Amino acid sequence: MGPGANLFDKFGHSAFRVKDGPNRRDMVFNYGTYDFNTPNFYTKFARGKLLYSLSVSDYRSFYNSYVAQNRWIKTQELNLTYAQKQALFTYLVTNAQPENRDYRYDFCFDNCATRIRDVLVAALVDDVEYKDDYLEETKTFRQLIQQNVHWNSWGSVGMDVGIGAVTDVEATPWEHQFLPEYIFQAAGSATITRDGEKVPLVKATHTLFQNKPKETKVSFLKSPLFVFVLLGLLILIITYKDYRNKARSRFLDATLFFITGIVGIILVLLWFATDHSTTANNYNVLWAFPFSLFFAFAISKRQPKRWLRRYMMFLILSLALLTLHSITGVQQFAIALIPLFVALAIRYLYVVRWLMS
After folding, report:
1. Structure pTM?
2. Contacts of 254 (CB under 8 A, 6+ apart)
């Protein structure tokens, strides 16, 4: 299934369809479902502890739901013997039992797409073989995550801020398959041993529903880049006025410390207090340093303590290190945040100079 309009739909979806004409069965095994009534749903989701489930539904209702969302649907008919079909079906039915259907979701390594491949490998044992040559080029996890999302959107910026340097490593062809698009491509080049002979895993490919593409209009005036350009200009204008008046806007400095500190604490919690594999080693803390929250009151005073000057110099060095990380490829940061980074650096330099006077 193709991408949808919502951020969580942008990556597409995959599922198994089992059609048994003689017994009038046409069902979908879907590894991408979860229960909103789960106790502490949002807390578990934030901590990466939410369980996803394998659900079974009628094909027609499943199909209609994606048609209603204007999402294209393609199918790959697998080239299996009767025994292999039975083995796969038995595996799915067993996996759908209440005691077996739940699993700990991981966006990059264990999701509705990877389960398609992993179930085939588990059910068909050594008969199925995936190849690495289905890709013309490999990408990093971050590039793969972002490729269906416009860079100048709030969803893209939010993901770039939330995910860490662990996503800036190149994914192997096997690891590319956390996205449905690559599960589809990999299956198209895979082989299956059928009666002692290796044959293509996919016997036929069909388009079940072709959507009507809708142009996605991104309003620049509501975009992150425009907002952060305005925010950066506001910081620079206040800093220039402070320079002309030989003053310091304590409210601005306290606000910057408070907001960046809050963001920093959230990032640290995502890094250390969750099971999300993609939020570790997040060097966005170099501009959103969590300790700034605790120093917001101190910087708001008319005459701050002298040690705050050293802390401000530390923040400037952190921004320099952030720039180095970006240039060397350790971690990529949201392009829309560049105006904010520049404004923060200039503001911090001014405050250091003011504190030294």
Report:
1. 0.90
2. 296, 297, 299, 300
